[in-house]
Amino acid sequence: MLFKMQSELIAGLRNYYYNIATSVYKFKEMPKEIPIRYPEKWYYENGMCTFMEVPNAGYACLPVMTGSIQKNMYGEPAEWKAVAVGDLAGLVGSIKLNDKNSVLMRNDMLYRPTQPYVEVLIKQLVNVELTTRLNINAQKSPVWIKSRDEDVLSNKNAFLEFYECLPAQFHDTMSPETLEFFNSGIPFIGNELADLYNVYDYRIMSYLGIDNPGVDKKERMLVSESESKNDKIMLIRNARLEQRKIACEKINEIFGLNVSVEVNEELNTEKVNGQMSGAPNSAMESGTVGKGN
């Protein structure tokens, strides 16, 4: 049961953050033969992809065969090949690509995929979730029970009924003389665990270039600290955006298209710590941003 719960948590969180990560940027005027979820899928999983034209099949946005990359004197890719599946796999894999007949599209300056770092923090989130479950159950059954050997089964059944929150149990063999109770003394730390969960969630969202003002709610943050935090998030977001813009410029130059990219308009880039820029905020005006007031 525990393994199944852990697997479901990992799968759910992977899906959750994948959908967020691949929704930060929106490409416009991509050729209709390229599915809408690309190239962000390849950015997230591989860190790069290539835009090319496949004979008799039109434009394509495909992952790069990493072992095929030939580098120039600066260590930058000079030639590469794409990977495809289906009937066109052989044709696509045989085409030698370079910056004259295709565009190598980068997720960031280092061609790094987004997924590995997110996966590390997902494991931390799952650990927090499972620890929270254990801690809650410890509050639900905060005692150890010592009983006679002949009464162990009856007492186990009584405990299971208690565990299921039944208000009363009736057993003809149970009496105070046959039982000893020991308090486990495990404190409830659900609030601390919830804060820790938010910290890991915030780290993922920051890495994706998304501000999450709900973290550190018990503290007060100076305006300078708030601005510094948001500057870092904007730098991360804009660094990836810049690489996507460069790719669009090259695509348009080589193939005569009008592809563009922008930050998803549903991400309000004017929002700072839950307040719209210019909106009244007495805490900010006094030099601090209130958390959890």
Describe the protein's architecture and organization.
The protein has 293 residues and is an alpha+beta fold. The chain is built from eight helices and 13 strands. The protein has helices at 2-21, 40-46, 89-94, 115-140, 152-163, 190-207, 223-255, 282-285; strands at residues 25-28, 48-54, 58-62, 70-71, 77-79, 102-106, 143-147, 179-183, 221-222, 260-263, 271-272, 275-276, 288-289. The strands form six sheets. Strands 3-2-6 form a three-stranded antiparallel sheet. Helix 1 packs across helix 4 (115-140) and helix 4 packs antiparallel against helix 6 (190-207). Mean pLDDT is 82; it is low at 270-293.
Shape: elongated
Radius of gyration over alpha carbons? Answer: 28 Å
Average pLDDT, all residues? 82
Number of strands: 13
Structural class: alpha+beta
Physical arrangement of strands within the biggest beta sheet:
3-2-6
- So how many helices? 8
The low-confidence runs, each spanning 5 or more residues with pLDDT under 50, are 270-293
Largest sheet: 3 strands, antiparallel
**Strand content range:** 15-25%
Write the layout of secondary structure elements.
Elements: H1 2-21, E1 25-28, H2 40-46, E2 48-54, E3 58-62, E4 70-71, E5 77-79, H3 89-94, E6 102-106, H4 115-140, E7 143-147, H5 152-163, E8 179-183, H6 190-207, E9 221-222, H7 223-255, E10 260-263, E11 271-272, E12 275-276, H8 282-285, E13 288-289
Antiparallel strand pairs: 1-10, 2-3, 2-6, 4-5, 7-8, 9-13, 11-12
Helix pairs in contact: 1-4, 4-6
